[in-house]
Protein 1
Amino acid sequence: MASWRKMIASVLVLMLCVSITACGTQGETAGGATGTVTVSGKNFTEQDILAHMVSSLIEAQTDLQVVRKPFLGGSQVVHNALVSGDVDISVEYTGTGWIAVLEQENIGDPQETYEKVKAAYEEKFGITWMKPLGFNNTYTLAMRRAHAEELGIETFSDLVEKAPELVLGATQEFLERPDGYKGLQEVYNLRFKETKGLDPGLTYGAVKEEKTDVNDAFSTDGRIEAFDLKVLEDDKKFFPPYYAAPIIRMDTLQAHPELEGVLNMLAGKLDEKTMSKLNAQVDLEGKKARDVAEAWLKEQGLIK
């Protein structure tokens, strides 16, 4: 009987230890378990590349484990995930943070925009911005070059006169954002015959195949050159600067302060031309975003 009592007591002690250990590992970081961070990105190619770039760099330069959540959704979805703690790190654009998230007026100056959006995120959301990656991926509008030349369209203002005869194909997010079509309607009085909400990966092909006439474009997208599209001039400077930078929850950074130095290893290393080439490797050559990201990191000597 004594031996049975000892055995039962040992089992109970073991169960208690396991329970205490399990409880002790919950909630210690926003990503979940201790030593784990979650990196996410939005639902388009550039963000997919950047999410993997950040993730692979962290894995190579620290002992942290990374949970990757690429293509999570649009800007608001990723932002909400960061605020709630479901995600620790992502890459955001200064103009998106300042206008679409914080709902402020366009400042124009890139450095001032960065400083103000960084301060506001820290105060309001407990999220801070690392140093910018180096490129400005501004929104723009694009058309088939031959079509734009036929209609004599060089600028957004030129487009205003012809827009009632044309179809805009854009992401649903662009159609609804204040720094998207809604804002263009106010600033330029731009009105299209029809707008079509499309998946981010389909807007360029729709213009190329003449299913639409104009698309919302990113200045770093490799398909602009490949599809011979003409980028129209934003002659009233409506779009703000969209400099990309890693952003991270401040409690995550406090738990893992080494992440600041690691994320800032990317500062200033990506210009518009380089980012465009990386995007083209995925969209036009069919390479995987993670492979493209890691090949670039190796070229830079940031991972082995």
Protein 2
Amino acid sequence: MELKYCTLLKHLTTAFALCITSGSAAFAQSPVTIGFVTHSQGDAFIQQIIDGAQSAAKDLGVNLKVAQQSGSAPDAQLKLVQNIVNAGAAGVATSVPGESMTRGLNDIIAAGIPMVQYNLIGESVKAPYVGERSTESGRILGRMVLDKLGGKSAKGKVVIGNCFPGLASLENRAKGVEESLKSAPGIQVLGPYDVKVSAVENYNHWEQLHAANPDAVAMIGLCAPDVASLGKLNAATGDKFIAAGYDLTEQNLKAIKDGHAYVTLGQSAYVQGYLPVALLVNAIRNKTRLQPGFLNAGTQVVTAQSVDMGNGLPKLTFAQLQAMSASPSATADYYKAWAKSVDGAGVVSRIQPITMEGK
């Protein structure tokens, strides 16, 4: 006989029934389904994260159900998580684009559904987070730009843009960038300014910032679309500034190859997708509870002359990386040895206090 246990979770603005089915042979034999919820549907970087999650699901023998929203509205994201859990997911991974999601996510966790955060963190969510060390990542990017400008003797305006003002990980990146740039007294830091996340809006905002600061010596973005936008802008205005930013998307790498952007930092998108699924599968199969904490996905540093992929991964040339960025299957092949080394219980043992994310 099949039994259902339901918990009614009530909020000020939402209410939903969370049902867990047990006691039937059909349930026992059915494959585990993991939910994977993202913001910014269609973004190339987000797709790289999804590719990693799909590879993990294949390697670990579970079903992956992906749900996406086009923007980053917290309420819309929470609704997707609730829907995917109500549809029967045994665990869920989600980015957290707003702290207003915290109560709803914590209610799901309290009902016994394991959860992992990735990419965008909710600091009060009672679940582990997989991502970069955000402030340190900003420091690295700031140092790279400053060295290119001449080090501590560098002078001029540096404009910083943030596509999601208020998000902790991006604010930390900005803090790290500014910390490195301040070692040069002659550098004037402007921003961070809101440059939006959609490709069209992002380019338009950078274009406006350049028009207001045509003498800027560098422009630094903190989000995935920025390097492509800045490369396009630099090409249109005579390559007069250093363009720098984040993520190893096909478009960003092309901007670097073409000489219109200098450096982009990866935050190990494939790893950010793979590890949450590994953590969830381990928790579900071993009936263990995931505790809050931080799991460092690593930082990658890429210029046209050098590629550092982090995580002990094999060396790549820039040309090899560029080819891989356009091929999910080639990416999975590249990470295959790393993926085989991923042990769910071992990954749990590497979780650090959540405060390490911003160190």
Protein 3
Amino acid sequence: MNSSAKPNPLEDIAAAAGAAAGEHVWMDVIQKMDEVYHELLDYEVALEQKNAALEESQQFIVSVLTSMSDVLIVCNRNGVIEDVNPSLLAITGKSEEALKGAALVDLFADEASRRRMQQHVAGHIGEPLHDCELLLQGRDNMAVPVSLNCTPRYNSVGKMMGTVVTGRPVGELRRAYQALHQTHEELKRTQQQLLHSEKMASLGRLVAGVAHELNNPISFVLGNVVALKRYMERIGTYLDAVHHDGEHAPKLRKELRIDRILEDLPSLIEGTVEGAERTRDVVDGLKRFSAMDRDERVKFDLVPVIERAVHWVSRAVPDTFGVTLDLPAHIPVLGSSGQLQQVAMNLVQNAADAVAGQTGGSLHISARQEADQIAIDFHDNGPGIPADNLPRIFDPFFTTKPVGQGTGLGLAISYGIVERHGGKLTAANHEDGGAVFTLSLPVVAIENRSKE
């Protein structure tokens, strides 16, 4: 090398540029590697989260399948078992390994059940099967009746992959049905007892009015019978005199006023018959009211039923309570006159209680036709119903009366009676003041009878 050679500036610059370029490339490489590393870390974190969620879902599914009391069988399109749950293992007494890969039809105990399931697997596996009772082969060769449901299963693209069979031993269903039936019967007995209790309460409210109603004709009959007894003694004395001493008979006839007795006898007998008939009518009305005619469905006129309810309740309340009726001549309905009389009496009695203590308390009962129903309004001039109580007015045991003066069952039972008659019972506050209860019932056609 020539030591005297001069340095070349271009070579120095080129060398420096090359070194700088190589360093820049390595920096880019390191930066890219760092980015890839962070992406791998994020992907690993996301993958771990998804795996955790997947394990949690699998544990949830396993816990559900394990806790199921119903049997569960998953089959492919050929009817080969792919999966089962512990309930089926408990019934059959077989292991999961023994059942997986076996034919579905081999689970059944009798030929009829196997044939029925074979038909479903062979040609109708894509069709659902509901509540089909078949016999499974249980432990110790015991046949277990099971109600089965078969539903096809599909993959994400809609292709049918097989079927899912679920079932419940019929013994459990029968026990559940028996328990439900027993509960229903107890509820019916309780409802009947409540109805009877309210009816007895209604009868108790009638005692004062009915006692007065019966006392008049009975007193009339008793007075006539006493007079007849006295007359019979005189007639007996006169007849004895006629048979033994005919000469004194005319005189004795005048003294005993036999002619007056003979004239008075027809009216006494007629009055006695009338009093007895009035007593019989009152008793018949009570029998119609108190009869347990829950399922009675006869055609009758509602107008006399309402009139009778007003008459009896009015007898047991103060004279300051007045009732006015604005009803048509006839309201033909179908059902139980005794039960609807109980409803009418309850509404009249509630109106009387609402206006108790105020002067000029009154109840106005009117009727109006609404399509094929008749609506009967019971409008009193009391203080009305508080807005908070309106939604609960027909709830059982709800009452605003003091303790001992109301059971809270009257309106609830009346509501149920009206519903069973195909009608409706509503309560509201009238725009003119007071409360109004509306009884709506379907009316039946009045038969036209031609005179012969």
Protein 4
Amino acid sequence: MAEKIKVGIIGLGQMGSPVAGRLLCEGVPLVAYDINPEALQRIVDKGAVAASSPADVARQCNILLTVLPNGPHVSSVAEGEEGVLASGNPDLMWLEMSTIDPEVTRNVSAKCIQKDIQIIDTAIGGLTVDAEAGRLLFMVGGSDEDFEKASEFLAYLGRSVHCGATGAGVTMKLINNQLAGVTLAATIEALLMGRKAGLRFADMREVLSGTAANNAHLHRALPERIIKRDFEDGFGMNLMVKDAGLALDLAQRLGTPQTLGAIVQQLRQRAINQGWGDKDTTIIAKVFEELANTDLAFEE
């Protein structure tokens, strides 16, 4: 960016931490805050400056990122004596990256307008490995001017797509996650049938990749996670259930069907009940495997 930037980040969880790490690797000055002192210390050890509150972060930077678990967390960070809205920083551009209810995004945006703080709906698409490599996809909601300002900075982290007015970015994120989750479940279900019929994964992937059945899960989730039985340190099932729940709530408000989405959500809940909430969302494969009485641990 043309002007000198100083970035603040609030939320150093599963996605916030690799985003912060990427910015530090790019030489971007970073101020950070998290209620978890261990998470905060890990980023400080990499070169960030610790802040004492959300308002403290906002006062020290001209670009603020929030990557938080849910809507109430975003509202809490915004409001109160130590909230972002109390920072009084007229030069602040707040990029709100959390996966939350779009109504919360719009409500917080309205409060920011009253305080002359610019906030841009900037939902994140991608995995932690994408954050580390600078190839995230950002779904941005706001004006054309908002998008131009945001995308210039977001080039440090990946690429951006303008999805419409405020709230459209996180709405697109919910739709994306919903479709990706259903596609994963359908892919697992189909491959289990092939597995039980004696087909090899390599053959199935080659054929499916050349048809309308092709999808990213055939090339990432299956070979890198499910077949290798690696369900650790990914996008947690608890988070997926939360995101899908937001999508289902939105669909109900809009009056649109989510029949498949609701069924897959029930299967995810079975995984939660098995104690797999902290595992990567691909752990849903084990639910299908139990139902099929076979597994997807193909030999190389």
